[in-house]
Amino acid sequence: MTETDSIAYDVVVLGAGPVGENVADRTRAAGLSTAVVESELVGGECSYWACMPSKALLRPVLLRADARRVPGLREAARGPLDVTAVLAHRDEYTSHWKDDGQVRWLEGIGADLHRGHGRLSGPRTVTVTGPDGTTRTLTARHAVAVCTGSGALLPELPGLADVRPWTSREATSAQEVPGRLIVVGGGVVATEMATAWQALGSRVTLLVRGKGLLPRMEPFAGELVAEGLTGAGADVRTGTSVTSVTRENGTVVAVTGQGERVEADEILFATGRTPRTGDIGLDTVGLEPGSWLPVDDSLRVTGSDWLYAVGDVNHRALLTHQGKYQARVAGAAIAARALGGSGAEAGPWGAHAATADHGAVPQVVFADPEAAAVGLSLAEAKQAGHRVRAVDVEFSSVAGAGLYGDGHRGRARMVVDVEREILRGVTFVGPGVGELIHAATVAVAGEVPLSRLWHAVPAYPTLSEVWLRLLEGYRDN
Q: So where does this one cross the membrane (predicted)?
């Protein structure tokens, strides 16, 4: 390897996913010179192997499921999905795994892109090893932001590598539908990919170690989604661990803790995430390689005055939208400190504090039915010491839900802080509820009093009328 040059910037960003892009966007908007280092595709996990391809796979699945419930439409929707067309649309949605458009955007904001693997090589210093083996040293006058994301966490099972298991990357980019698919896990990735591939023609067996699906949501969310998967033909087994996996003559064989053999063509492990910090030189600045990086609310790494960790790597909320929110906060804080302002030291709910991470994080699970939640569950609110009350409403009581057809089930819950009469959390499970969750996020983040929510009148007949039913439930009981 030969070193070609050394370049100084105000800010160096490791990782060009949505998080790194947004940090760069904010620091460039403030007039700071910014370098972005990326070893794979500009646009990151979300654009090519997570949010975008998974939702492209799921959209026709969920539309068909809705159509099959509507009189006058259900017969037309009885047939199978056009798998070739679905996969082709998915490929188009990911730009065929090419990042030309993302690179043009990065260039358009005036950031410099350095292709290659970036490693910290001391305080405020990053060494980039390019595809051709040459190295380049980048120095940061003010900040280095680690935005390298997370990767799939595989269990320690003997011989697992020989099985060639799917992770979320293979599950969202596969070019053929496996005849049989084992999905190990019960979280969002497992649930969404089981939904997608079952509908595309695979026979899915979902092996869930815990008691149910979506353990971080209200219990009824996982229950209703499990019912939906079972109704679609998937085999959902809870309380089931995997003790060994082999591939025999092309067939995957998973042995469960109960001694059962489950056979399939492919197996997807959706059993957690691990930070991509193992080979980025953390040891050169006194940090543990491969660790999650603790940060303050401005996303600055604990004990440092120049290193930031934004997005998945800080383990606050492993969600693209939350990472982008953190990136906007971090970019503003970096700029304020670099330009000598005091705003970065301001309190909560300012431009330089990721306060929403602590109790106003929204999430949507694109299953059938959809599940969406923001803030704290009832159990989490109680554990946090709040005096709360839950109000539950069935969507069958909402006129707008009836327009989604027959046989639909859904439920909403709001968790009310009875001392302050504000919302600590809201959960929806039902048709199209992903589009309801932002209103709930505004109510939770804004700490809108219930007395004021009465005057936010929902249009009739829409799903939003569930808010009126929830408020009535709190008032009348």
A: none
Residues of the chain below pLDDT 50:
1
Which residue from 277, 286, 279, 291 is spatially nearest to 306, judged by alpha carbons?
286
Q: Does the annotation place 191 within a ligand binding site?
A: yes
The verdict on whether residue 190 carries a ligand-binding annotation is: yes
Q: Note whether 3-43+99-151+275-356 and 160-271 share their fold.
A: yes
pTM above 0.85, yes or no: yes
Which CATH superfamily, name and number, covers 369-476? FAD/NAD-linked reductase, C-terminal dimerisation domain (3.30.390.30)
Residue 186 among known ligand-binding residues:
yes
* C-alpha–C-alpha distance, residues 15 and 111, integer Å: 13
Q: Is 118 annotated as a binding residue?
A: yes
Query: Is 372 annotated as contributing to ligand binding?
Result: no
- Domain ranges within the chain, ordered by starting residue: 3-43+99-151+275-356, 160-271, 369-476
Q: Is 172 labelled as part of a ligand binding site?
A: no
Annotated ligand binding at 148? The verdict is yes
Q: 201 labelled as ligand-binding?
A: no
Decide: 444 and 424 in contact? Cβ < 8 Å.
Answer: yes
Residue 382 annotated in ligand binding: no
| C-alpha–C-alpha distance, residues 380 and 374, integer Å | 12
Q: Does 410 belong to an annotated binding site?
A: no
Residues 6 or more apart whose Cβ sits within 8 Å of residue 226: 212, 213, 236, 238
pLDDT at 1: 43
CATH topology of domain 3-43+99-151+275-356: FAD/NAD(P)-binding domain (3.50.50)
Known binding residue 192? Answer is yes
Q: What pLDDT score does 431 carry?
A: 87
Q: Is 55 annotated as a binding residue?
A: yes
